[in-house]
Design a protein that fits this description.
79 residues; 0% helix
C-alpha cells in the first residue's frame, strides 16, 4: 500500500487520508459518498488540506494464535 494523490481516490467508499499542516502531519479515516461529499474522522486540522489517500489495511485477526483462549468465569473462589 502506498500513498496516492487525493485526485485518484475512489469516488465512493472508505480509505485513509493524509493532511499535512504547519503544526503536524495527520492521518485520518475518511468516507466519500457517491455525491462526492467526503467526511474525515476525528479532529482534522481545518487549516490543512487532504493531499493523499491510501486503502484501509485488512483488519487484524480476531485472536492471535499465541494467546490462550479466554478462561471461564470463576465460581466465586477467593471472595
Amino acid at each position: 500500500m502506498e500513498w496516492q494523490p487525493i485526485e485518484t481516490a475512489p469516488k465512493a467508499g472508505e480509505f485513509l487520508v493524509f493532511i499535512p499542516s504547519e503544526q503536524w502531519m495527520q492521518v485520518h479515516s475518511a468516507r466519500r459518498y457517491p455525491n462526492g461529499a467526503m467526511v474525515v474522522s476525528g479532529d482534522a486540522d481545518e487549516d490543512g488540506e487532504v493531499t493523499h489517500w491510501m486503502h484501509l489495511p485488512p483488519p487484524p485477526a480476531t485472536a492471535p494464535e499465541h494467546l490462550p483462549p479466554p478462561s471461564a468465569p470463576s465460581s466465586g473462589e477467593g471472595r
